[in-house]
Write a structure and sequence with these properties.
Elements (H helix, E strand, L loop, with lengths): L3 E8 L3 H21 L1 E9 L3 E4 L8 H8 L1 E2 L2 H10 L5 E5 L10 H6 L2 E5 L9 H13 L4 E2 L10 H10 L4 E7 L2 H12 L4 H10 L8 H4 L2 H13 L9 E3 L13 H6 L5 H9 L5 E10 L4 E10 L11 E8 L7 E6 L3 H28 L1
Parallel strand pairs: 1-2, 1-5, 5-6, 6-7, 9-11
Antiparallel strand pairs: 2-3, 3-4, 8-10, 8-12, 10-11, 12-13
Helix pairs in contact: 1-13, 7-8
Bound molecules: NADPH dihydro-nicotinamide-adenine-dinucleotide phosphate and the ligand N[C@@H](CC=O)C(=O)O.
């Protein structure tokens, strides 16, 4: 039987997007042999340019993109895939853009399934959230976004399945930001200025494209909102109480350039926060959703170094899920919650899941 060819249109070729391409190129043979699936990227884009290659990009894709990418609109992409009769289309959103999300519904209406690392679509107003799902149902398309919470960790899936089984989830809490976890884990154990560790988190690709999204608490709040909606709670972003780590004189009101050059302003207040804690305590940035009281909160806390949160390392997330059956002892999911390799692998897993769904649909059509 010939392999199922999947055509991926990739929006965003930064940390996650470019790592995804390289992972697919490396594992192409494995997918063909083990899954009978061929993954191709006929179109890849950054925020302004797109590179079109009907047969799919090859190893030298970065040079080809630099040389031949052209300005694009979403209509150009839809027109191209129709003209070229490309089938089994998956749009992958590896951006942090709010604009790109507006294209999800037109893409679905034109035959695309969606896989997204971008949290925006799931955190806009409930009206959009529902409209998106209405279209997915109407056009029989999938939308997978496991990497929205915990990067490659199976958090969304676990919450979804618990809820699906009728399990009552009572509380979800923990460290949800990989980058802020990395920053505080190092800040607690090393004598380095906060701004230096922040710069390293940015350089490694752990933070959002604009790290103020992480330090403002918005990124953690989005993750809480996504999980809350998975268990059918009617909540909006504005319902979340967020205690920001940004400063009155260094925040979203500054230009990105001002923010970039003034990060050492963080050093003094965070040094004071560190040395004024009780003995053997460390700082941790946590999110908490208490389902009964419908309270969603993002805040900085000081915890004993010996506690589970106090012992976190690297860019670890630690997410506790309290449910009726599990009682006082929560389900715990722990591991790297940010990083381009783990995130790209999570996106790739979602792509393969969509491909398997397409395979099943094809088999059903063929049997009719
Ligand atoms: N990094 C991580 O550890 C994790 C990231 N994620 C999510 O993955 C997404 C990507 O993160 P990351 O790769 O680190 O970010 P990067 O900043 O490295 O890359 C973002 C990419 O998106 C492109 N882009 C921006 N706007 C648009 C647009 N409107 N249309 C098409 N492309 C666009 C950028 O292009 P240009 O260069 O032209 O601006 C760039 O290529 C984010 O939503 C993030 O939350 C999720 C889990 C973990
Ligand atoms: N910036 C985010 C990346 C993953 O969503 C984080 O630090 O957790």
């Amino acid at each position: 039987m010939s392999a199922l060819r999947i055509n991926i249109v990739l929006f965003g070729i930064g940390n996650v997007g470019s790592t995804l391409i390289n992972q697919v190129i490396e594992s192409q043979k494995f997918f063909l042999e083990k899954r009978n699936i061929e993954l191709r990227f006929p179109i890849i884009t950054n925020s302004t340019l797109a590179f079109f290659e009907k047969g799919g990009i090859k190893n030298q894709w970065e040079a080809n993109f630099a040389q031949s990418a052209i300005p694009f609109r979403i209509e150009d992409i839809i027109e191209y895939v129709q003209e070229q009769q490309l089938e089994n289309l998956i749009a992958v959103d590896a951006t942090a853009s709010s604009d790109i999300v507006k294209n999800y519904i037109p893409l679905i209406q034109n035959g695309f399934d969606i896989v997204s690392a971008n949290k925006k679509a799931n955190t806009l107003h409930t009206d959009f959230y529902k409209e998106l799902r209405r279209n997915l149902k109407k056009f029989d398309k999938s939308f997978l976004y496991e990497t929205n919470v915990g990067a490659g960790l199976p958090v969304v899936q676990t919450i979804k399945e618990l809820h699906f089984s009728g399990e009552e989830i009572t509380k979800i809490r923990g460290v949800f930001s990989g980058s802020v976890s990395y920053i505080f884990n190092r800040f607690s154990s090393e004598e380095l200025p906060f701004s230096k560790i922040l710069a390293e988190a940015e350089k490694t690709g752990l933070t959002e494209p604009d790290s103020r999204e992480d330090l403002s608490g918005n990124d953690v709040a989005r993750k809480l909102l996504i999980l809350a909606r998975e268990i059918e709670q009617q909540v909006e972003f504005s319902d979340i109480t967020i205690s920001s780590l940004l400063l009155p004189n260094l925040n979203e009101d500054n230009s990105k350039a001002e923010y970039s050059v003034n990060k050492q302003l963080f050093d003094k207040p965070f040094h004071i926060a560190k040395i004024t804690q009780a003995d053997n305590h460390v700082l941790r940035y946590v999110g908490e959703f208490d389902i009964k009281s419908k309270q969603l909160e993002v805040k900085l806390i000081s915890v004993p170094k010996s506690s589970a949160l106090g012992q976190l390392k690297g860019a670890d997330n630690l997410i506790e899920i309290y449910t009726k059956s599990y009682g006082e002892l929560p389900i715990v999911i722990q591991g790297a919650g940010a990083g381009k390799q783990v995130t790209a692998r999570g996106v790739l897993t979602d792509i393969l899941k969509v491909a398997e769904t397409i395979k099943i649909k094809e088999a059903v059509w063929l049997s009719l």
